Amino acid sequence: MRALAAHRFVRGAVAAVALVALVALSSPVVGRNLPPGRLGVIVGRAQDAANAYQSEILSDGRVDFDEYRDAVDATLRCARDKGVPVVGPTLSADGYLEYAYGEEDDEGEVAPDAIALGELNSCWVEFSRLIEEVWDAQRDQLI
């Protein structure tokens, strides 16, 4: 009986430590410039994962439209530098910047291109993925 009780105690202690670790990993660090609630968690995680370019934009815990626009422009500039033809960006009615990649055909359609998508995606990750994630989260909070 004593061995069973010890096993339960150890199992309970491991579960408690795992819970504390999970909460610590999902909670933003106290003292950082973060908005409250779910948005703060998203911003905190983005700040932790950001490279120098995105980190500077995220340092105040918010993304304004000009910062969002700069990040999208940097992404598209990077893609164009890699030879990816990009159409846009244009501002959508709901406040998002939209663009397409690849060659436009005679009807104005852009055909999918896996190589161009890969190049564009690497630029997106480098310059705007985390910025867009926070931008989306901020906008979701307003709705």
Structural account:
The chain has 143 residues and is mainly α. It folds into two domains: 1-30; 34-142, no CATH class. The chain is built from six helices and two strands; from the N terminus they run ααααββαα. The chain has helices spanning 2-26, 37-49, 52-58, 65-81, 114-127, 129-142; strands spanning 86-91, 97-101. It has a two-stranded antiparallel ribbon. Strand 1 and strand 2 (97-101) form a beta hairpin. The chain is elongated, with a radius of gyration of 22 Å. Residues 1-30 have low confidence and may be disordered.
Shape estimate = elongated
Task: Count up the domains.
Answer: 2
Task: Indicate the mean pLDDT.
Answer: 77
Biggest sheet descriptor: 2 strands, antiparallel
Proportion of beta-strand residues: 5-15%
Uncertain runs? 1-30
Number of strands: 2
Side by side, the strands of the main sheet go: 1-2
**Termini Cα gap:** 57 Å
Rounded Rg: 22 Å
Oligomer classification: single chain
Structure classification: mainly alpha
Number of helices: 6
Order of helices and strands: HHHHEEHH
Helix fraction, binned, reads: 55-70%
Please give a handful of descriptors for the protein shown.
143 residues; mainly alpha; 2 domains; elongated
Secondary structure: elements and pairs:
Blueprint: H1 2-26, H2 37-49, H3 52-58, H4 65-81, E1 86-91, E2 97-101, H5 114-127, H6 129-142
Antiparallel strand pairs: 1-2
Summarize this structure briefly:
By secondary structure, this protein is mainly alpha-helical.
